[in-house]
Every structure is written in structure tokens, then in C-alpha cells.
Amino acid sequence: MRFKRGGSAVQIAWANNAFLQVIEYIAVFCCGMVGGSATVRRGYDITAIIIASWLTALGGGIIRDVMLGVPPVGVNDKGLVLTALASGIAVAFIYPEVDELRWSMLTLDALAMALFAVEGTAKALTLGSSGMTAAFMGMFTALGGGLIRDTLINKVPMIIADKHWYFVPAAVGCVCTVGICRMTQHGIIGIQAEMALELVTVALVVTLRLLSVKFDIAVPGAITRSHVYLPGEDHRR
């Protein structure tokens, strides 16, 4: 179903989708904790921790909403903003315990990425975007916050530095969400089935991410060559 851009029509349509709202709040809190923890490890104060949590949690959504031409949730939605700020405050108090739980933090990061990929893609489709545009918006939502966080704390962005599957699972989640939403729009599956499949998609994205770290599965780089021949050079040597 398509909705008009801007105004109350979009807000009403989005507010009525309780499932997507729950996904959004969980993702914001998880992502905020990951962002705050990264700032704690760099030795910054509580103000920086809270700001980093807010930008990590809602930065991708701000990018998405600006590109879609709707009010950014990162500054417009009081509930989400307070959730992001609360995640930063929580990390400031419990960071010693959080920092020791490496796999828990990896899981939280993977869960946030998966939830944002599904939520961002679904929201773009709800606002009338094409499937390809929605997939890109989902990618911005899933990865944009981390990119802003790492740039803010002067760190090589994880999307570049991490050779394990990071971008790939997010892309898989966005493409799967487009397919699921299209099946719902064409009456192939119902709303309940759509919700179930979206949860399966979240689980798939998290699984792909964690398996790549567990078994050290890296994305291949450029093809290795023993010699690069310049123009005019005799390749028979």
C-alpha cells in the first residue's frame, strides 16, 4: 500500500504499524549501547558518550529520512530520541560489564544492524519508494549510524575496517525485506506471515554476521597478481 509523502498520512500509517515500531525501539537501544561503548573505549566523557549513542542509533535513520523527504526521526520522534539518550546513559554506568562481553556486544551490533535493515527498508516501501530505492534506504539506516560514529571518534569506519561479513548481511536483509513486502502487497501472504518472515530475515542477518566472525570468513579482496604489466611492456619475459 502506498501513502502520500509528508503530512499526517505518513505519520498515521507508520504509527498504526506497531510491529515496525517495536523493531525500531529495540534497534535504537541496541545500536546506542554499541555506539556508547565504542566511545568509552576511546576515553571520552559522558557528554561524548551520549552524543555518540544518539548519532549511532539514529544517524542512519536521519540520513534515510532526509533523503526520503520526511521529518527525521532522530530529532522529530521524542520516544526514539529519549531511547537513544537512555542507551548512552546506561552504557556510562555499566560499561565495565558491557566491555567484557565481546560476543554479547557483537550480537547486539548484529541485531541492531539487522533490525535497522528491515525497518529502514520497510519504512521506505511504506512511503512509496521503489524496491531498489528502499533497499538503499535500508542500507543507509543499518550502516549510516556506525559510519557517523566512527568518523566522529576518528576511527576507520567498521564497514571498511572489518573484513568479516558486515555489509553483505545487511544487503541480504534489505533485499529479503523488499521481497517480503512485495508479496504482501500482491496478496501472496498476509500481515502475520509478513511479520514472521521479517523476524526470520532478522535472524538470518544476525546469523550470517556472527558466523563470519566465529569462523573468520572474510570478504575477498582484489585478485592477487605476481606482476602487473605496463602498457608496451613485453609480457613474455
Written overview of the protein:
The chain is an all-alpha fold and 237 residues long. 75% of the residues lie in helices and 0% in strands. The longest helix is centred in the middle third of the chain and has 25 residues, at 102-126. The N and C termini lie far apart (64 Å).
Please report which band the strand proportion falls in: under 5%, 5-15%, 15-25%, 25-35%, 35-45% or over 45%: under 5%
SSE order, one letter for each helix or strand: HHHHHHHHHH
| Uncertain stretches | 1-16
Bulk shape: globular
Structure summary, number of beta strands: 0
Helix content: over 70%
- Output the structural class: mainly alpha
Radius of gyration: 20 Å
Q: For the report, how would you describe the main beta sheet?
A: none
Distance N terminus to C terminus? 64 Å
Compute the average pLDDT. 81
Contiguous helical run count: 10
